[in-house]
């Protein structure tokens, strides 16, 4: 668990540092704070609650990395970004990048999807639309929700986040 915590704090520190750099260039500035036990407990109510929290997403991503399956969340996030793309030219470029990174055989971050879905995507990216990765994204989401998410909720790290810190009493001078 110590290695897991180290990875998460490193991830959060780097995310925070890069966000600060972006903030200086006029972009939004994001900082990550340890969530309250109550906020962390909300993540157990629904997988979407976890994904909606910046810290929750970072914690889940670090957990997936510790299980050697972070390509799932990276693919899901890439698809979410892809769906927001307005320009048809950018849509095609992003579709090809997602395909090369996650879908094609021997891709560097190849996700585990069936042959038919891969073929359908290969055909669809020729004329990319916002829905060309929908079937694969749903499969990956389901895989994370039904397999990784329950393990995350059982992890020692998550259990620690849900614990209330002990109340310390300040010694009073008499």
Automatic annotation (TrEMBL):
GO MF annotation: an example: GTPase activator activity
GO BP field: negative regulation of signal transduction; regulation of translation
Domain of life: Eukaryota
GO CC aspect terms: cytoplasm; nucleolus; plasma membrane
Keyword Iron: no
Pfam families (alphabetical): RGS
Compartment(s) of residence: Cell membrane; Cytoplasm; Nucleus, Nucleolus
Keyword Phosphoprotein assigned: yes
Alphabetical keyword list: Cell cycle, Cell membrane, Cytoplasm, GTPase activation, Membrane, Nucleus, Phosphoprotein, Signal transduction inhibitor, Translation regulation
Domain RGS: 46-162
Function description: Regulates G protein-coupled receptor signaling cascades. Inhibits signal transduction by increasing the GTPase activity of G protein alpha subunits, thereby driving them into their inactive GDP-bound form. It is involved in the negative regulation of the angiotensin-activated signaling pathway. Plays a role in the regulation of blood pressure in response to signaling via G protein-coupled receptors and GNAQ. Plays a role in regulating the constriction and relaxation of vascular smooth muscle. Binds EIF2B5 and blocks its activity, thereby inhibiting the translation of mRNA into protein.
Subunit annotation: Interacts with GNAQ. Does not interact with GNAI1 and GNAI3. Interacts with EIF2B5. Interacts with PRKG1 (isoform alpha).
Protein name (database record): Regulator of G-protein signaling 2
Native organism: Eudromia elegans (Elegant crested-tinamou)
């Amino acid at each position: 668990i110590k290695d897991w915590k180290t990875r998460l704090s490193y991830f959060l520190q780097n995310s925070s540092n890069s966000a600060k750099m972006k903030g200086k260039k006029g972009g939004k500035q994001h900082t990550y704070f340890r969530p309250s036990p109550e906020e962390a407990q909300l993540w157990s109510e629904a997988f979407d609650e976890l994904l909606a929290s910046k810290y929750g997403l970072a914690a889940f991503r670090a957990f997936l990395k510790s299980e050697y399956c972070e390509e799932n969340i990276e693919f899901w996030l890439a698809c979410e970004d892809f769906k927001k793309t307005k320009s048809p030219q950018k849509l095609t470029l992003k579709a090809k990048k997602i395909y090369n990174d996650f879908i094609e055989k021997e891709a560097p971050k190849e996700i585990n999807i069936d042959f038919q879905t891969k073929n359908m995507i290969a055909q669809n990216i020729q004329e990319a639309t916002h829905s060309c990765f929908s079937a694969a994204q749903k499969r990956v989401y389901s895989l994370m929700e039904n397999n990784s998410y329950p393990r995350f909720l059982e992890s020692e790290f998550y259990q620690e986040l849900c614990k209330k810190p002990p109340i310390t009493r300040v010694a009073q001078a008499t």
